[in-house]
UniProtKB/TrEMBL annotation:
It is an enzyme of class 4 (lyase). Keywords: 4Fe-4S, GTP-binding, Iron, Iron-sulfur, Lyase, Metal-binding, Molybdenum cofactor biosynthesis, Nucleotide-binding, S-adenosyl-L-methionine. GO terms for biological process: Mo-molybdopterin cofactor biosynthetic process. Coiled coil: none annotated. This is GTP 3',8-cyclase. The gene is moaA. Its EC number is 4.1.99.22. The lineage of its organism: Bacteria, Pseudomonadati, Chlorobiota, Chlorobiia, Chlorobiales.
Length: 334
């Protein structure tokens, strides 16, 4: 590998932040309807022609890897609804320069994929689960699939020494906040990171304005009360607060996605399922790459599009777009 290229990626924004990490939303379709993410009427009949296809996603990853990107996360919507998801993982792993390939999933379909993901070289899975209670699961996701999801979580935990496992728990005051201890206890037995996340206002105002928001300070207070022996440890990127319980195998973290600003270190670019390059989770406008790919753009033209998107990257996402944020995480992928 070219060392100069490693020191500074080719894609750099106006604030001198280089891009190392791309999050690709491979579909906006989903088999759940989480109340903090999408409405029941969310359309699942995405015209497939408007979704990036396999070749197009591969091309984007290759082009970005040549420009210094080292990590790929597949997300959505629900990425496991794409039947080429294992091939995408395998392909991304084989691209020169890409070191880490991970995905974020709701776990509903994980059982049928896990072995193939391991064989394809997937480095990690972020598994989103907010409750162990059946009625609550149904209330949050509007689907009755908890039994399947728990079965798949158990299989994943049993493989946690073969890939990095993180459990994303979105905490909602008065809904699942009482389950914090049950989730944290998973780290005693398993080498996983359990991450408690703040709600963000990307839910078409379904619950954002109903007082269910639970901030990082409150989460920290509850955790400290439950576990006086909690020890601070080094967290990763979005994990601003990170801890472990004495004698435990895993870690506990808090993602203060709303109340804290971790933008100064941001090394991310996002690709939406409909083929737009987004410079920030809060960005409203992106740059269309789908049309360019379908018009036969060469690598130089793609680089110009990535740079164009990056030139729009705000210093701070929340200040730039927080007042009227997007209506759902599903197209941009969280
Ligand atoms: N503000 C902000 N929040 C983010 C960003 N990326 C992820 N998040 C928050 O973190 C939550 C979990 O995202 P994941 O898909 O698990 O990814 P991640 O935490 O970035 O994972 P890593 O790749 O391990 O750093 C999202 O739902 C967001 O709330 C970001 O770039 N900016
Ligand atoms: C948009 S989902 C896509 C991947 C997959 N469907 C899943 O749920 O893991 C990615 C992450 O975004 C989180 N998310 C969705 N809506 C959110 C919101 N309004 N605030 C904070 N996080 C949100 C989910 O909990 C999930 O961990
Ligand atoms: S958070 Fe994930 S699982 Fe829930 S509706 Fe959004 S995309 Fe689907
Ligand atoms: S809010 Fe925007 S700039 Fe800040 S970390 Fe997230 S994506 Fe990066």
């Amino acid at each position: 590998m070219n060392e100069a290229r490693e020191k500074m990626p080719a894609l750099v924004d106006r604030y001198n932040r280089g891009v190392r990490y791309v999050r690709v939303s491979v579909t906006s379709r989903c088999n759940l309807r989480c109340v903090y993410c999408m409405r029941e009427e969310h359309c699942d009949r995405t015209v497939v022609a408007e979704e990036l296809d396999y070749q197009e996603i591969c091309r984007i990853i290759e082009a970005l890897a040549a420009l210094g990107v080292r990590k790929v996360r597949f997300t959505g919507g629900e990425p496991l609804l794409r039947d080429d998801i294992v091939d995408l993982v395998r392909y991304a792993k084989a691209v020169d320069g890409i070191e880490t390939v991970v995905l974020t999933t709701n776990g509903v379909l994980l059982g049928q994929y896990l072995d193939r993901f391991l064989e394809a070289g997937l480095d990690g899975i972020n598994f989103s689960l907010d409750t162990f209670d059946e009625d609550r699961y149904k209330a949050i996701t509007r689907r009755n699939l908890l039994a399947d999801v728990l079965g798949n979580l158990e299989s994943l935990l049993r493989h946690a020494d073969m890939l990095q496992v993180k459990i994303n728990v979105l905490l909602l005051r008065g809904i699942n906040s009482g389950e914090l201890g049950r989730f944290a206890d998973l780290t005693r037995q398993w080498p996983v990171t359990v991450r408690f996340m703040e709600l963000m206002p990307f839910d078409d105002h379904q619950i954002w304005r109903t007082g269910k928001f639970m901030g990082a300070d409150k989460i920290l207070e509850v955790l400290s009360d439950l576990y006086p022996a909690l020890e601070s440890t080094q967290g990763h990127a979005t994990e601003h607060f990170s801890f472990h319980l004495p004698g435990s195998r895993g870690k506990i973290a808090i993602i203060p996605a709303f109340t804290r600003n971790f933008c100064s270190q941001c090394n991310r670019l996002r690709i939406t399922s409909s083929g737009r390059i987004m410079s920030c989770l809060y960005a409203k406008n992106g740059v269309d790459i789908l049309a360019a790919l379908r018009d036969g753009a060469d690598n130089e033209q793609l680089e110009a599009l990535f740079q164009k998107a990056l030139d729009m990257k705000p210093r701070d996402g929340r200040e730039a777009g927080g007042k009227a944020p997007r209506t759902s995480m599903s197209e941009i992928g969280g």
